[in-house]
Amino acid sequence: MISARQVSKHFGRLSALDALTLDIARTRITAIVGPNGAGKTTFVKTILGLTRTYSGSIEFDGARVDDDGKYRSRIGYMPQMARFPENLTAAELFAMLRDLRHADTPIDEDLISEFRLSTELRKPLRTLSGGTRQKVNAVMAFLFKPDLFILDEPTAGLDPIASGILKDKIRSERSAGKTFILTSHIISELEELAEDVAFLHEGRVGFSGPVSELIRTTRQETLEQAIAQMMKRGVAA
């Protein structure tokens, strides 16, 4: 689904991505991991078209992402810290997004019910707690039934019950043929969900493949231990 080839991105003298080559497989859940400053956020923003002026190529189903922005309608993005129009209610926000997309996609009422969001949708977003805003953020990501989900720290601020609901939703959508890219500092969470893992170090790919393969090659027992071992080595391919 996503094919990145020799992608480099610089911010002044800082190299955020350095000839990064990586494939994200369709209908899989892929975790993007690595130390701070490894290039995870830059890579995600480049896929989304939020970062420009890079060398190399990124393709979404065979089409270059910088040729036509229409592919973005097939992506559901859940940023770590969503910025909302604070004067709107969540219901008004969803309606505005559907108007902008010229889409009549219904809101996922089951997810709203499980999150117990029904009464919160009528309140101004500025009055909502951090956890409730994160639930709204999640509903937004699933709103247009996209093919690819990019979820950045998706359970941040959620209580254990809401976190479990979101994880079950991710598994359900994966079973329905959707593709996920996850980033999270909660490695145990990634171990629950991810099938594949891409370890980034200094803007390059140090490992890409099944979670089980990373655990085997590092001779560790858990994904968390395997990632820690990769970080200690500081090795990039």
Q: What do you see in this structure?
A:
The protein is an alpha/beta fold and 237 residues long. It has helices at residues 40-48, 90-101, 109-115, 130-141, 160-175, 187-193, 211-218, 223-233; strands at 2-11, 14-24, 29-33, 55-60, 63-64, 75-78, 148-152, 179-183, 196-201, 204-210. The strands form two sheets. It has a six-stranded mixed beta sheet with strand order 6-7-8-3-9-10, sandwiched between helices. A four-stranded antiparallel beta sheet has the order 2-1-4-5, covered by helices on one side. The radius of gyration is 18 Å and the shape is globular. The two termini are 22 Å apart.
Mind sketching the topology for me?
Layout (H helix, E strand, L loop, with lengths): L1 E10 L2 E11 L4 E5 L6 H9 L6 E6 L2 E2 L10 E4 L11 H12 L7 H7 L14 H12 L6 E5 L7 H16 L3 E5 L3 H7 L2 E6 L2 E7 H8 L4 H11 L4
Parallel strand pairs: 3-8, 3-9, 6-7, 7-8
Antiparallel strand pairs: 1-2, 1-4, 4-5, 9-10
Characterize the biggest β-sheet. Answer: 6 strands, mixed
Query: Regarding quaternary structure, how should these chains be classified?
Result: single chain
Bulk shape: globular
Q: Structural class, from secondary structure content?
A: alpha/beta
Helix content: 25-40%
Task: Find the count of extended strands (DSSP E, 2+ residues).
Answer: 10
Low-confidence stretches: none
Report the span from N to C terminus. 22 Å
User: Count of helical segments?
Assistant: 8
C-alpha-based Rg, rounded: 18 Å
- Beta-strand portion reads 25-35%
Q: Calculate the mean pLDDT score and round it.
A: 92
String of helices and strands: EEEHEEEHHHEHEHEEHH
